[in-house]
Amino acid sequence: MWGLPVDSKLVPSPVSERPRRDVRPGFRDLTLGEAGRPRGGIVSDRRDFDFLVIGSGIAGLFFALRVADHGKVGLVTKKRAADSATNWAQGGIAAVSSNEDSVEDHVRDTLVAGAGLCREPVVRFVVERGPRTIESLLKLGVEFDRAAGPDGQRAPFDLGREGGHTRRRILHHRDATGREIERVLLSRAAAHPNVTLFENHCAVDLLTSRKVGLAGENRALGAYVLDAATGQVERFQARMTLLATGGAGKVYLYTTNPDIASGDGMAMAYRAGATLANMEFMQFHPTCLYHPQAKSFLISEAVRGEGGVLRTRSGEAFMAQYHEMADLAPRDVVARAIDGELKRSGDEWVALDITHRNPEWVRQRFPTIYERCLAFGIDVTRQPIPVVPAAHYCCGGVRTDLHAESDIPNLFAAGEVANTGLHGANRLASNSLLEGVVFADAAADECLARLPHLREREPDAPLWQSGLATQSDEVVVITQNWDEIRRLMWNYVGIVRTDKRLARARRRIALLQEEIAEYYWNFRVTPDLVELRNLATVAALVVEAAASRKESRGLHYTLDHPERDDARFLHDTLLRRGGTDGPA
Ligand SMILES: Cc1cc2nc3c(=O)[nH]c(=O)nc-3n(C[C@H](O)[C@H](O)[C@H](O)COP(=O)(O)OP(=O)(O)OC[C@H]3O[C@@H](n4cnc5c(N)ncnc54)[C@H](O)[C@@H]3O)c2cc1C
After folding, report:
1. Is ligand 1 within 6 A of the CB of residue 283?
2. Which of the chain's termini has less CB crowding within 10 Å, N or C?
3. What pTM did the predictor assign?
4. Which DSSP symbol is given to 114?
């Protein structure tokens, strides 16, 4: 009765080509290609900027606006500019903004959620900057809801509260906070004379001086970027580069993330030699609507808060067996319980039932959910809602410092692509938008300070090479591998893991990587192929990180090692091309 969610993204497009190269499978060479290998062939212009920004969500746009008065900004984004996770964020942005809250409270809540792996100086850095971040957003024109206040005074914010927060501290714009932020930042960036926006331009690989054979300390030089309209891969060179490519939710079959979230920035940084951290910590949201056309619609936790009951398809309420708080148990417990029920029964969804509440009240309380479900033929006042847990937020990413810089000089990363140390082993709700702005801001400070000391123009990176590659006549290979990776990640590397499942996943991903590599080097590169290659790399990195953590902590839960083990694992999982770096 229910099919799988369909991805509409797999449309082939013509592009430039590369020569074949030998494929060496296995974790130590997950990369399926190298940026900067000398290539000749299609002649494409070099584009030059002071700042190259890859991604047009909250992090990329905020950074672009901060630096644009001081230099030329190239802003590339692989689809339309507003296609970002930012645009989908509902709940809001966490920041201390009332007398009943304090920096200490926000710091403590973040540390508790992070299960021992947050970097406390980073948590303080972010939380202390919260109020000033909100001021910056307000100055740019973002509107947050306010409670009714006394006449003539600026009314206080209408603050929301979410799981894990001991105070009301979530600023929001109705239930579409991200859309408001994206709207304001994008219109400002698009209007700035120093910002050139390149939509439908997909970064393929980063350029570094080491990869292209330049002398001196290794440093970022920009990126190869594929123009989906012309099929050309061009060199976008810049004095400093910011990765703001967002998360990697698409690596799982079910996700709340938009299509753009294929982990491109993480994979590109990894191939370029940057360190990635904590890729095993993927946050799953317990209740995402299950429907072939719905793809990724969240059913808010508030439905359970208002009495919604999770049931098996045969109608049994099951949460009481898992936690004393039953349906109001913490998010990760509910996600694990649903996963357990699905694995046990073989069903594809469980039901969330709010039919016992007054229909009129349900319509008033949950207008968006009511309307959206009705559009898919589900009247939530009379029918249970089919739901599945879904990958929601990637706590791991490119390891960065307090200036948002990676371990490749002049390569910065901000937003979900980065691992700053804020979230540790589990993200506190609504801390991610805050993190994105704080570190985009920090990156901008550092880039502006550094700008006068950098060379005006680096030598040319080699042209993207056209080889004997042809246009693929079997795009089905991409579709097949895309589906296979996401399904095997869901089944073997999902909410509950075991050593055996991880070993199976590792073997299969290695095979898929081989096949994708062969395809990548034989056929013209397309945006879909770029994403598939990156998805495979990210999948391999998640498996590797998960397999190395032989304990359960935060978002990483394994049946073979169900306890937290501080003696052995109170450290980050660092991965760098060529091998694991070990504890930090
Ligand atoms: C449904 C949903 C609800 C959420 N609710 C909240 C919330 O209430 N509060 C909160 O704090 N967080 C929330 N989050 C998380 C938060 O929205 C994200 O973590 C945050 O918006 C990420 O911002 P970003 O700038 O890092 O990336 P994004 O906003 O995802 O933007 C990434 C950009 O990079 C571009 N890109 C990617 N790869 C390439 C490439 N190869 N070449 C060129 N461009 C590329 C994309 O096209 C996009 O423009 C939610 C997430 C989802 C999915």
Report:
1. no
2. N
3. 0.90
4. T
| Nearest ligand 1 atom to alpha carbon 245 | 34
Instruction: Write b or e for each residue in 7-46: b if 16 or more Cβ atoms lie within 10 A of its Cβ, otherwise e.
Output: eebbebbebbbbeeeebebebeebbbbebbbebebbebee
Let me know if 311 is a catalytic residue: no
Q: Is 88 in the pocket of ligand 1 (CB under 6 A)?
A: yes
Distance of CA 227 to the CA centre of its chain: 23
Which of 331, 399, 486, 524 is labelled catalytic? 331
Nearest CA to ligand 1 atom 5: 89
Residue 298, ligand 1, Cβ within 6 A? yes
380, 353 in Cβ contact below 8 A?
A: no
For residues 82 and 258, what is the distance between their CA atoms, to the nearest angstrom?
Answer: 11
Average pLDDT, consecutive stretches of 10 residues, N- to C-terminus, the chain (584 residues):
27 29 28 36 73 98 98 98 93 93 96 96 98 97 84 75 84 88 98 98 97 91 96 96 98 94 98 98 94 83 86 96 86 89 92 96 86 96 96 97 98 98 94 98 98 92 76 83 96 95 98 93 90 98 98 96 98 86 36
Indicate which atom in ligand 1 lies nearest the CA of residue 431.
11
Which tokens go with 168? 């009301």
Q: In what order do the strands lie in the sheet with 418-419?
A: 418-419, 397-399, 276-277, 574-576, 579-580
Q: Which helix H or strand E contains 268, and what residues bound it?
A: helix 264-272
Nearest residue by C-alpha to atom 11 in ligand 1: 430
Phi and psi at 539, nearest 5°, equal: -55, -45
Pocket test for ligand 1, best of 77, 142, 301, 538 (most atoms within 8 A of CB): 77
- Vertex 261, ends 328 and 226: CA angle to 5°? 175
In short, whether 416's Cβ falls inside 6 Å of ligand 1 is yes
Q: Is there an atom of ligand 1 within 6 Å of 123 CB?
A: no
